[in-house]
Amino acid sequence: MDFNLAPDIEAYRIAVRAFVAEHIIPVESDRSAYDEHDNIGLDRLAELRAKVKAAGLWAPQMPKELGGLGFDQVGMAPAYEEMNRSIFGPVCFNCAAPDDGNMYILNRIGTPDQKQRWLQPIVDGSVRSAFVMTEPSPGSGSDPSMMLTRAEPVGNARWRVNGLKWFITGAEEATHFILMAKTSDDSRKGLTAFMFHKDQPGWRIVRRIPIMGPEEHGGHCEIEFENLEIDDRDRLMEVGDGLKLTQIRLGTARLTHCMRWLGLAKRSMEIAIEYAERREGFGVRLSDRETIQTMLGDLAYKIEIGRLLTMKAAWKLAAGDFARKEVSMAKIHVADTLHEAVDTAIQINGARGYSKDTPLEWIYRYARQARLVDGASEVHKMVLARFYQQERNDFWTWGV
User: Fold this and answer.
1) What does the DSSP 8-state code read for residue 216?
2) How many angstroms separate the Cα of 249 from the Cα of each of 106, 239, 245?
3) pLDDT tens digits, the chain, 400 residues: what are they?
4) Is the CB of residue 322 less than 8 Å from the CB of residue 247?
5) For residues 68 and 123, is the Cβ–Cβ distance under 8 A?
6) Superfamily (CATH H level) for 243-395
7) How far is CA 159 from each of CA 150, 154, 238, 390, rounded to the nearest angstrom?
8) d(Cα 89, Cα 341) in Å, to the nearest integer?
9) Where in the chain is the domain with CATH 1.10.540.10?
10) Is the dihedral of CA 339, 345, 346, 348 positive or negative?
C-alpha cells in the first residue's frame, strides 16, 4: 500500500488539526463547559458543531450527496486521529461512536427510504442514535448467537419485540435506534436488525448504568422491551441477515476506535514531553534523564506501530475486505498502547497528571474501556489464533 495521503485528505487533516487547536482544546480547561458526566455540555457542543459545519469539516465519512465529504477508511484514519487530539474532538465533527458506526452501516445497506428517514437526520446532526445489541448474562455479549431478545412476526408485516439489553451507548440521548433481535434458532441466520424511534411505545430505559466514566452523551443504559411493535419496512437487510450486518458494521466501527485512540495516545505523549522539557529536578531537566527518554521512546514506536496496523486495516476495508485479522490486531495493540501512553504521561507529570489540571486523568479513565468495547482483547486474540490454526504460515501474506 501507498502511505502517502491524497492531497484532499492531507488538506483536511491540516484543517482539522488547526480547528481542534483553536476552537476545541481551549474548551477543555473551562469546567463550566462540562456536563455532569464529564463530557462536553450540549450547549457548547452545539456551538462547536455549528463552527465545524461553517468551516466545511463536517462528517467526512459520509457521501457528499448526504452532506459529508466522501472519505473512505483510509481518509478517515488520519482525520480521526487529529480530531481526538482533544477529548471533545470527534463528537464535534459528527465522527464519534455510536453515531459514526450507525451512519456507516445505514449508508452501506439501507434502502433509499431508510436512508432518508433514519440516516439523513443523524448525518445532519439533528438526532443522535444507538446500536442495541449487548444483553445481560446469559444473553449475547461477544457471542451474538446467545441473543435472547426476540422479534416475532405479528399481524400484517409487523414484528413484536421482547427482551432486555444493557450497556447501550448513548441510549438516553438517542432518537434513532438500530436493534438486533433473534428471529429464529438458526446459528448463522437467526438474527435480524430493525430500526425504531424513541417515541414508539413498548420499550423503556430501566436505568443509566453508572460507570467509571467519563461517559458518552446518553450514557450506557439498560433497556427493556415489552411488546415493541416495528413495521417490516423498518427491517434492515433480509430476515436472518443480522449477523452479517454486525460484521459489516463492526469492522469499520472497531477500527475508528483505534483511529481516535491514537489521537488520545499522541495527546498524552504531547503533555508528557511538554512538562518534561520544562520541569527540573536536582539540576537536570526531566527530558534529559535517560529513564524519561526511554519511556518516551518506547511510546513513540508503539504509537507508530498502532498507526501502521490501523492504516493497513483501513486500506483493506476500503478495498472491500472484511479485514478481520487486521482489525483485531489493531484493536488489541492500540487499546494497550493508549492505556500505556496515558499511564506513562501521568507518571512523568506526577501529581499534576493525577489532577484535573490536564486532561490526563480523563483520558486514563476513558482508556480502561478500550480493552473491553467492541470485543475484549482476549476475544480478538482468540480470533487471531483461529486464523493462525487454519492458515499456519499463510497467516502472514502480502497482497499481490
Assistant:
1) -
2) 9, 17, 6
3) 899 999 999 999 999 999 999 999 999 999 999 999 999 999 999 999 999 999 999 999 999 999 999 999 999 999 999 999 999 999 999 999 999 999 999 999 999 999 999 999 999 999 999 999 999 999 999 888 899 999 999 988 999 999 999 999 999 999 999 999 999 999 899 999 999 999 999 999 999 999 998 999 999 999 999 999 999 999 999 999 999 999 999 999 999 999 999 999 999 999 999 999 999 989 999 999 999 999 999 999 999 999 999 999 999 999 999 999 999 999 999 999 999 999 999 999 999 999 999 999 999 999 999 999 999 999 999 999 999 999 999 999 988 8
4) yes
5) yes
6) Butyryl-CoA Dehydrogenase, subunit A, domain 3 (1.20.140.10)
7) 10, 5, 14, 40
8) 19
9) 7-110
10) positive
CATH for 7-110 (1.10.540.10, 3.40.50.10240, 2.40.50.140, 1.10.3810.10) = 1.10.540.10
Q: Which of 324, 294, 323, 329 minimizes the C-alpha distance to 308?
A: 329
Q: What is the pTM of this model?
A: 0.97
Please report, in angstroms and rounded to a whole number, the separation of the first and last CA atoms in the chain: 11
Q: What is the 3-state secondary structure (H, E, C) of 352-373?
A: HHHCCCCCHHHHHHHHHHHHCC
Question: Cell numbers of 379, please?
Answer: 476475544
Unique residue bearing C-alpha cell 465522527:
95
Distance, in Å, from the CA atom of 233 to the CA atom of 29, rounded to the nearest integer, reads 47
What topology does CATH give the domain 129-236? Butyryl-CoA Dehydrogenase, subunit A; domain 2 (2.40.110)
**Positions of CATH 1.20.140.10 in the chain:** 243-395
